[in-house]
Design goal:
mainly alpha, 83% helix, 199 residues
């Protein structure tokens, strides 16, 4: 690698980081929405299994996740039309969460339908993916506290893999509140402040 190549790569990396700091690429609303939606789903699942109503879950999760995907796609289309500036960092962020969403959907539905693992394994598997997502997004944000959330996700995943019982659903709800919904509220507040300064 020549000095020129190294300088060009460094300039490219700096541009991505500058883009992400100059224009907040996530307002936190998607994080809050999915945190609340999945927490609701997990609570209904916990209560249904505890009461012996598992048969209702055959339609519940596909409907819930389908609603989440439709809402997200419609919301993102509207945001794209309003977005004045598109950044490379924003594209990376979008790709990270699209990849996560597809992966989580496959793990949640295909793995259990095929009998690859029991339903209680879904939460720790998704927690591992979320840890990866938050680590990458923290770097893009230039906010180390967002990256540190990955430690909580991975630690919680290890605990849930060890437990492998119905109570892991309650642990996952707690993790979603502490590691996704509350951070999403902080990101939304920062977004509002940043937008007020730039406008």
């Amino acid at each position: 690698m020549t000095d020129l190549d190294a300088q060009q790569e460094l300039a490219f990396i700096k541009k991505v980081m500058t883009d992400s700091r100059k224009i907040l690429i996530d307002d936190g609303r998607g994080t809050i929405f999915w945190g609340l939606l999945i927490s609701f789903g997990l609570l209904i699942t916990y209560l249904s299994v505890a009461q012996g109503w598992e048969s209702t879950l055959s339609w519940f999760w596909p409907a819930l996740i389908g609603f989440g995907w439709i809402y997200t796609i419609v919301t993102e289309i509207r945001r794209e039309r309003k977005r004045r500036v598109k950044t490379f960092a924003g594209k990376i962020m979008g790709a990270v969460w699209i990849a996560f969403g597809i992966s989580a959907t496959i793990l949640g539905f295909v793995g259990t339908v095929m009998g690859a693992y029991h339903g209680v394994i879904i939460s720790p598997l998704i927690a591992v993916l979320l840890g990866t997502g938050y680590l990458v997004c923290g770097v893009l944000y230039g906010k180390s506290w967002v990256s540190y959330l990955s430690i909580g996700w991975w630690g919680g995943a290890i605990l849930m893999f060890y437990m492998q019982n119905l109570e892991t659903l309650l642990i996952m709800i707690g993790m979603l509140i502490l590691l996704q919904i509350i951070p999403g509220i902080f990101l939304y507040r920062e977004f509002k402040i940043e937008r007020a300064i730039t406008e």
